[in-house]
């Protein structure tokens, strides 16, 4: 008995030291990519300048443009006197970048550049990250006014550009779906339309989202899609959503829109223009109006990465943007009138 006590006294310090060492290594490794700081700022609303300076990055196509100071990342507002604007502005909402590969301040930049390679369509770019990892629902003052903040910013930019393109994946795709009615074209990969379905551990340790704020996401996504599909926007706009058909997490999200699933949810017909298996040759791929749901036979939630590995991402984006013919002469051309289309529901695994 005495030997067991002595053995316990010897083992306990070793175990405690090992736990503290592993915790230190985890914090040390993740502090640089912002994970720990983003969680702390989400729960406490403490502002960290190292994260805030990465919230917004503006990249004009004209390299000589000096109208937008680099130090204004926390509250970017367009310089109304700038004369270097391109006809197109591409706005990217980064996903859970701080938790995966570090703070990628210019997510989608390389892909969008490749899409427009060898075309005469230059584009300015605005890149957003979410320092608190809370579905962009917190504004730079760390109040729950993020949705209003970003929508107002997009509205302001839409008065200065002929064409606004929104793009994002996962957490960023959610914001794309919430703002799609303000843009010309919106592309969302694996968007989270109902954060509650992620489960409580992920909503706290992953993307922080209380239940009352999850309702904001659900309602805004529904309202935005309904406005686009019923043509109640100020201009024609298209929203293309891509989900992985074989991903359990994507299935739960998609069933909220297309119906079916474990609880046999009803289809939100007022929100949808078409629901189809992905086919790059489908005429709906370059549709300029309506809400189009595309299902890919992939298991990965990170669909965009899977498509990139198989060299399908760039052709897909080119079809959506019409980049092969999106020159300066066609960008200002009047958009086609919306053509009503019947929804085609595909079979998804339960």
UniProtKB/TrEMBL annotation:
The chain crosses the membrane at residues 6-27. InterPro entries: AB_hydrolase_fold (IPR029058). SUPFAM superfamilies: alpha/beta-Hydrolases. It comes from the Eukaryota. The keyword Transmembrane helix applies. Keywords: Membrane, Transmembrane, Transmembrane helix. This is Uncharacterized protein. It comes from Rotaria sordida.
